[in-house]
Amino acid sequence: MTRKIKIFDTTLRDGEQCPGASLNPEEKLEIARQLAKLNVDAIEAGFAIASPGDFESVKQIAEQIKGPIICSLARAKKEDIQRAWDAVKYSAKPRIHVFLATSPIHMEKKLRMTPEAVLKTAVEMVKFACSLCPDVEFSPEDAGRSEPEFLYKVIGAVIDAGAQTINVPDTVGYTTPWEFGQLIENIIKHVPQVRAKNVTISVHCHNDLGLATANSLAAVRAGATQVECTLNGIGERAGNASFEEVVMTLKTRRDFFAAQVDINTREIYKASRMVSNLTGLVVQPNKAVVGANAFAHEAGIHQAGVLRARETYEIMRPEDIGLTENKLVLGKHSGRHAVAERLKALGYDLNEANLEKAFNKFKELADKKKEVGDRDLEAIVSDEVYVVPETYTLEAVEIASGTHTKPTARVKLLYQGKVKEVNVAGVGPVDAIYSAMQKITGVAPELVDFTIQAITGGTDAQGEVTVRIKENGRIYVGHGASMDIIMASAKAFLAAINRLLYARTNPTTLRQ
Prior knowledge:
By secondary structure, the chain is an alpha/beta fold. It folds into three domains: 3-279, Aldolase class I (TIM Barrel, Alpha-Beta Barrel); 300-384, no CATH class; 392-509, Double Stranded RNA Binding Domain. It has 18 helices and 16 strands. The chain has an eight-stranded parallel barrel with strand order 2-3-4-5-6-7-8-9, surrounded by nine helices. Strands 11-12-13 form a three-stranded antiparallel sheet, covered by helices on one side. Helix 1 packs antiparallel against helix 12 and helix 2 packs parallel to helix 3 (78-88). The radius of gyration is 25 Å and the shape is globular.
């Protein structure tokens, strides 16, 4: 019999805890919309008590996103649980996710609580959550290092208290697939309430040893019916189980797992790109399923095999994850309708204002480049649509640089209707531009990351630059794309500065 495996996406909660991956409420809502298109079963929208920004974004998602369960995490404390309920109660399918550590090291060193106190608190707080919300999930944090008998006792007690989902987290990525699968089997075997009350057994695995996906799948084989995961596998430390890896494994090997997922996999690639663009965390080329090389074949014998029969070396089809072959050539003579249709085929259903911005940028690029490909269009959307309101607008950049010339940048920015201009020297052209922008804006953040990559092949390829800047311990991401890598670098840095300035004037967008 084929089992349904629920997919609980925690990109907006655990994924956002990845250093430098903070998102503002508008960006979270954009990702939540995409998760709804993916048809996930549950969205963990945030940790409502963490900050005013987290609360507002969870509330906004609960109000606007239809279809999936909308969930907020809460510590086993009344104030956390109440705050979570106040945020998710607007959803047609609200859930509160309560957690409390059960491993000896966590109870002794972090909580400073006895096992008896942990058991009592877990039961009381689950009962309180159930008094507010019809759907409550409980996680015994660090279950992978918990003593089995105590773990069984806690799980049984919180089920009796009303929890309908038990999430078993490998919080620090410590277990191996053999151990974790056995743990799930033993919980089902030794906690009679699981079977008697038809409780969902969920798993939440971290990737510290690179085993998060393997552990999650081992748990499914052992009887788990929900997997918690993140797009691109982002998350604290080495990240979480990867959404795309878990989903495509269950889809591709449905025969082996005797299980299915109800995910619209054709939205996976777009979702991956969106999360990468908004967080500034670049997907490595050899990343399974969504990496640039996932469907590329270099070796001659591989190419020959694929040309004769694709299934010789491809166990998935690119179109299964939304990578379609573009038969429509876009160029400078292409009209607005053709561009809109191609964007829609790629999964971008833009409103009129954003479509106009994207089309204008397309025409500008098409004047310089013979053919505009899908990746170019994705870069345009990232560069022109996924942006905060601009405090400063880039008017002009002029560079003097060369073998015997000290790099100098003349930068003009538009601010409140007036052009501000400076001339600054630097150790290189990009350094000169960034120094000039800092002088004009009065913002002097630390540049913590600068990456550049070609969007497509060929000498006329656009360069895509991603920068991450830091102020007061917070990271802000900026993107820029252009056939001129100097301009791409300038646009990316200014985008990050605008994001920083927007956050200053909208403090609830920040995680506290």
